[in-house]
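Review box. Two proteins, two foldings.
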Amino acid sequence: MAPPTDPRRPYKRPAISDQQRRRELALQAQSSRRADAQARARALASSLITTQAPPAATHHHEEALEEVDEEEHTVADVAAAASKLRGSDARRWFARQIMLPEWMVDAPPHLARDWHVFARPAGKRCLVVSSNGLTISRVRNGSILHRFPSALPNGSKREISGPASSYSILDCIFHEPDETYYIIDMICWRGYSLYDCTAEFRFFWVNSKLTETSAGDPPSTYHRYRFSAVPIYECTLEGLQAAYSGSTPYVKDGLLFYNKHAHYQAGITPLALAWKDDACSRYVIDTDSKGDVPSEQQLVLELQEDGKLITSDDPPVVFGSLDIEFIQKSNLRPGNLLRFAVRDESVKLVDGKMQISELQFVGKPNRARAFADSHSKALFQYAARHAPLRIEDLVASIQSNSMELESTDVEMQD
């Protein structure tokens, strides 16, 4: 596609995915959804706090949990079912409780009007719940990261105020170098659910409510880790530049973009987007198990009982399959995460989707790996190797939108 002839209009990178269409569908779906936000928040808080569970686990437990959700049983039922999950079942369920971004493959229209942007701290993504005089953080696979006293509401024996059972749930990234929990979102505060509130409102509450506590103070006896809100900007040219180039107290790992109108949607959503380049992240192209950048793109996919290889999306994208003989010979099991190499010539982009004609089995990923790649991550990694979405493309998108608004204003005045 050749650049436009009008020199005043910046060149915009052509879209390569169907991300915008799915974003519009996601906004429509949330407006028609009538979820019981308080019940969802209570169920999540209870399951995060629950630590005792039987050692065995099967897919039956996850199916039982889904039945509990569908039938809207009590919070205790949901928490009890969640506590029984283990292995891949637990990873899948706990991962679906966090609002996970897609990878930005195409610059959304109306960035300046409809989006916030901030620099993502490098570290462990986790949910933090404070209740009954204790604070617990859990990473995406459900494992407990820390149990500690905090200055969050009811987060320590000293901080109990109001009902002892009142709870708060924060979406955080734990930044190990300064032992700080950086809050990137808020799900619940003192028992009040924010699931069905817009991102714009939730970000306002993060800043205003955090200042009501001493959670931002240095660590002390009743406050083991410091909490801090990340600087969030309107995605104007100035805001984008501040997030991209501005200094932060933490190591950056790319940028996160949140649609202002997005509710807190558990699971992967196109209403939150991750993006990175070499200037704002140490790791743009995925490395292999040795930490080196491989010559060919690599994907981590999850093996299903029928041999299909799927992404972590909901619904998942099938990228290929393994025959039963190879599965048995290699002693593989359903739920295993497997790493594959992808040759450039085996990739086609069809209707905004990535299609792969051949996958080369490499082996199992590092044991610390908890999830398969998403479709948007696979597409972002492919683009990063061939035609990356650059910071200049994001700037051009914002500038083009500004020109469209100015043109509309002139037409209205005429």
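Next protein.
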Amino acid sequence: FPAFYANIVLLNISNLPFRLQKLKEMFISKFGSAPKFYVRAPGRVNLIGEHIDYCGYAVLPMAIEQDILIAVEPVKTEVVQLANTSSLYLDFSTSVNNIQINKTKPQWHNYFLCGLKGIQEHFGLNNPTGMNCLLDGTIPPSSGLSSSSALVCCTGLVTLRANGKTLSKVELAEICTKSERYIGTEGGGMDQSISFLAEEGTAKLIEFSPLRATDVRLPSGAAFVIANSCVEMNKAATSHYNIRVMECRLATKLLSKSKGLDWKKMLRLHDVQSKLGVSLEEMLTIVEEVLHPEPYSTEEICKCLGISLEELRSQILSQNTQDVSTFKLYQRAKHVYSEAARVLEFKKICNEAPANAIQLLGELMNQSHISCREMYECSCPELDRLVDICLQFGAVGSRLTGAGWGGCTVSMVPTDKLNTFLKNVKRAYYQTDVQRLALENNSLFATKPGRGALVFVEA
């Protein structure tokens, strides 16, 4: 992947797109001067491969047109002034030399600070550039479409450009993945990778260690429709997400120890498969043999690993999972290994394009949702109902997308059924509830693969 400045788009001021023109006018009104450049980073929808990136397994997302857009003016002061076009988000300012990220309050500006700090630390910037920044976002917040990661990625690219530095897309994705963890979320890298590596017209198989992206051409006879359950879920605001990460980490340790591996060095479920040199199907059999379906208490885990409770908390568990008393290891490992296999099968079907490809892909999506609901327990009643409605009105496959516990579903719908599908889902899910009805216009839409992050500069 080339240096990121290959992705700079020059725009003539006379035909500056409406949204950028409006952002420029608001920026001038706010700061009294014009922005020098703009950065855009897209949200994403994950078609299949949920909660497995942090376990080391490949995922299959695509970028969407909804995005984070930031207008930027580098300044000579050592201050970042941050404002938002939405009145829901308060202005914020801080010294660029004293970045403090509050993990207990995942407010919007803290995600900005993650990207800022990540680039500063990567280059060891002793005198980083101050900035005035105005942000505009079209990704529904806490919807499972990666608004927070898009903000981190956008800010990382803003900081890179403002300080005159260059990096490859892969390096940027890896830095932004690490820097988002400043806010306390133990994410795996899918969101940041697709935000930078996405290309228009194709989904991507994203693989890790090393990070790489492969085009996946989707069937032409189907559309992917995103539907927002209107239940918000902020990963950093609860421990749901990090508990699952820890359950997978603990399953990794117990599986490794049972097979005589150096369990202390093993962090991800993929590491176990790789060390043993077996297939995903064989790993599912090993899970059946080694782990029991009943929840594991912290005492039992300590006994299995031969460590104290203090060692468990200080060496393995994350900060916001210290007080969790039981963990489900069997169910989480079963989901991860089966979901990893579904991702590879999804890509294989797309590549081979059999006559019944749409039906086969839809079935994999349905299996994924069932596993997310029953084995990973990251769904919720509203998501399950929305999936059922989508299947009832013509989707061949439907599943939650993103972290879950709220947010969105993604459904695969034959294009000849798309219009009636949208009408029926609107009527059945959104128009039966006053709160959902108010959000209806931005909650249900067909999407196609979009392009990755860009820098816009006026010509």
